[in-house]
Design goal:
about 675 residues; alpha/beta; single chain; globular; 25 helices; Rossmann fold; eight-stranded mixed beta sheet
């Protein structure tokens, strides 16, 4: 295949008070036309630094020391600003990690796409601008949302708009920087399916930067693994995931939990990356279980192997021999929660709209976005709250923490009723419930060093502040004492998230609200954080409401799982039961979309135009999208709640007619009778 882009011996350094620090060293790889190449590694390994150099982007304190970035034979590092602007968006486009910050909040999304097409004069012959914009929206699976502002779209819709803008000029190369981080599994699959379709239709190549190897398995042809600024392995995707050669690749893959292998052992890599303590030889030597004294002093370079593979390790054959032992499945026990109830939620209804003057006059309440939630947490229990974006997961978390007073319902902690609003709660109640936010960029003060950020909650709750305490909590989240004197802007996204987690743990809470806290972390750190949360649960009986899109992590950590859809609980059960034999059709849909480490060919089902549209609070919220909907009864009638022994399911179909394996001959006859009865209602 003909090379589209080739990176040769790329070296990049960042400048600071202590001089220049080399962050990318001797990176070499190429991408052929139409090929999808994945770039993976832990936070801070340099993968985004390399990716953005393909568009000529670099921070003001960065310097390309040596190397070439050849795009169709032209060295991008030698182009002036005007030439780069002609390429960006036209022949090389980028889909950023956070579409919220990349889309202008003051412009309608249609105008932003119009600007891209007009800038590069890329309107196809015989087509009007309006028709082209509608065509691009259709290409990414959206209706005509051109007149909407970004804040009027969900996160998944914003990401689709960003992709539509990126492909507006039919680029030869698409650079994707974590394009699905924070999206729910069904939306992730729709985005991956969309990218695969666009790649086949337009013939563009892709550089996909991510830490999600399970998702990468569904789209990438080849993968490059980076560590400490160096490529340590390049291999076809399926070969890398099945039999990694480098010890670091092996450790990364061993860290990945998957829903299709319940007993597979996951374990974070030993130690942390310390750029200030790098050996002269292999950079991974301080963390490698197979390293020798020779590894510490002998530099390792990529050496070609058979089957289009390359690895930078003199002991890769020894590592391969250890692979079989690591692949053995091991039990993954869950620690039993105490029977005492710690947190209780009863008949909770939430709305973001306060009652207006007419509401009060006519004694009406604003329409709730979350309704009739009953949930409880026991001491030492982890309850996972799962569902698509916009289902109300974070809204419930905000109400528990006091940031959103409920329209109706009660929340109690350890037998005491909690005041609805945060300002009315006692200092001790505030300490006992700690919230870890999804976006650390908005929850860390950019003007305060990490030392001050961590010391503040200790001081606020009357705890002693000392250096050892701060260093210990950093070690728990995979960081070291050198981070205490840094500002948030000097940290990667994953490192900032670890600081946010450390801050919440410092005051020894009884309840942790974890709102997508792992979505920005690489898989090795995820495994370490999961083990940390498990130890808090086991040793200190800390209860957790764990909001996540990652069902594999939920499987490893949670005791029970609550499935939420459009503000209503669809199913609640213990984790093994719910993930092993899901009952509600929506639960089935979520599990089918969860990726594994093998390409599965799953075709995601996007939301369809509802045949029967339910009135909120009256019919089933899943009506119109449900593949097993028996008729209009789902839209007109509130679904009954069926007790299931360890939980419940809310559905018009009988329990024996639900689930993947429910349609045995005997049950099929029973369900057919029930379906006929429902359709006659």
């Amino acid at each position: 295949m003909k090379k589209l882009i080739e990176i040769r011996n790329l070296n990049i350094a960042y400048g600071g008070p202590s001089g220049w620090t080399n962050v990318v060293q001797s990176v070499c790889f190429e991408i052929a036309r139409g090929e999808a190449f994945g770039l993976v590694g832990e936070s801070g390994c340099g993968k985004s630094t390399v990716a953005y150099r393909l568009l000529g982007y670099g921070t003001i304190n960065s310097l390309v020391q040596t190397g070439e970035v050849l795009f169709d034979g032209t060295d991008l590092l030698k182009l002036d600003a005007t030439s780069l602007r002609r390429l960006r968006g036209n022949r090389i486009a980028v889909v950023p990690q956070n579409p919220t910050t990349s889309l202008s909040p003051s412009m309608r999304v249609g105008s932003q796409i119009r600007e891209m097409i007009a800038t590069h004069k890329a309107l196809p012959d015989g087509m009007t601008m309006e028709r082209r914009i509608v065509e691009l929206f259709s290409l990414v699976g959206l209706p005509d949302v051109g007149r909407r502002y970004p804040h009027e779209l969900s996160g998944g819709q914003q990401q689709r708009v960003a992709i539509a803008m990126a492909v507006a000029c039919n680029p030869d190369l698409l650079v994707l920087d974590e394009p699905t981080t924070g999206l729910d599994v069904t939306t992730q699959r729709q985005i991956i399916q969309l990218l695969s379709d666009l790649r086949a239709r337009i013939g563009m190549a892709m550089l996909y930067v991510t830490h999600d190897l399970a998702l990468l398995a569904q789209i990438a042809d080849r993968v490059g693994v980076m560590y400490a600024g160096q490529l340590v392995e390049v291999a076809p995707c399926d070969q890398l995931l099945a039999a990694p050669a480098h010890p670091y690749s092996r450790g990364l893959i061993a860290s990945i939990p998957t829903v299709d292998d319940t007993n597979r052992r996951t374990q974070g890599l030993r130690g942390v990356l310390r750029r200030d303590q790098m050996p002269t030889g292999c950079k991974f030597e301080p963390r490698c279980d197979l390293a020798t004294t020779t590894c510490r002093t002998t530099p390792q370079l990529l050496e070609p192997l058979e089957d289009r593979r390359a690895v930078a390790c003199m002991r890769w054959q020894v590592a391969a021999a250890h692979q079989a032992a690591d692949n053995q499945t091991r039990p993954n026990p869950k620690f039993a929660a105490k029977p005492e109830r710690l947190l209780s939620i009863a008949d909770l209804n939430l709305s973001y709209r306060s009652p207006g003057i007419f509401d009060r006059f006519f004694r009406k309440t604003p329409p709730p976005v979350v309704r009739d939630i009953d949930l409880e947490l026991r001491f030492g229990e982890v309850v996972a709250l799962v569902g698509e974006s916009g289902s109300g997961k974070s809204t419930i978390a905000r109400a528990i923490s006091g940031r959103l007073p409920p329209l109706a319902g009660l929340i109690s902690l350890d037998g005491s009723l909690l005041a609805p609003a945060l300002k009315d709660r006692t200092v001790e109640q505030l300490r006992q419930i700690q919230y870890i936010f999804q976006n650390p960029d908005a929850s860390l003060n950019p003007r305060r060093r990490i030392r001050v950020t961590l010391a503040r909650p200790l001081d606020h709750f009357g705890r002693q502040v000392n250096e050892k305490t701060l260093e210990t909590v950093l070690e728990h989240v995979g960081l070291h004492a050198g981070y205490l004197d840094r500002f948030p802007e000097q940290l990667s996204g994953g490192e900032r998230q670890r600081i946010a987690i450390a801050r919440a743990l410092l005051v020894n809470p009884k309840v942790l609200i974890c709102d997508e806290i792992l979505s920005a972390l690489d898989v090795s750190v995820q495994a370490r954080i999961v083990e940390l949360l498990r130890s808090l649960k086991e040793e200190h009986a800390v209860a957790m409401l764990f909001i996540s899109h990652d069902l594999a992590v939920v499987q490893k950590l949670a005791d029970r799982v609550a499935v939420l859809y459009r503000g209503e609980l669809m199913q609640l059960a213990d984790t093994n039961t719910l993930l092993g034999t899901p009952l509600h059709p929506y639960t089935e849909m979520l599990l089918e979309a969860a990726p594994g480490l093998r390409k599965d060919g799953h075709v995601s089902r996007p939301p369809a135009a509802p045949t029967f549209k339910a009135v909120p609070g009256i019919g089933c919220p899943f009506a119109g999208r449900c593949p097993r909907q028996p008729g209009s009864v789902c839209a007109d009638t509130r679904p009954p709640v069926h007790e299931t022994g360890n939980g419940f399911v809310r559905c018009h179909l009988p329990v024996d007619g639900l689930g993947r394996h429910a349609r045995t001959p005997e049950r099929a006859r029973s369900s057919a009778v029930e379906d006929t009865r429902l359709q006659s209602l």
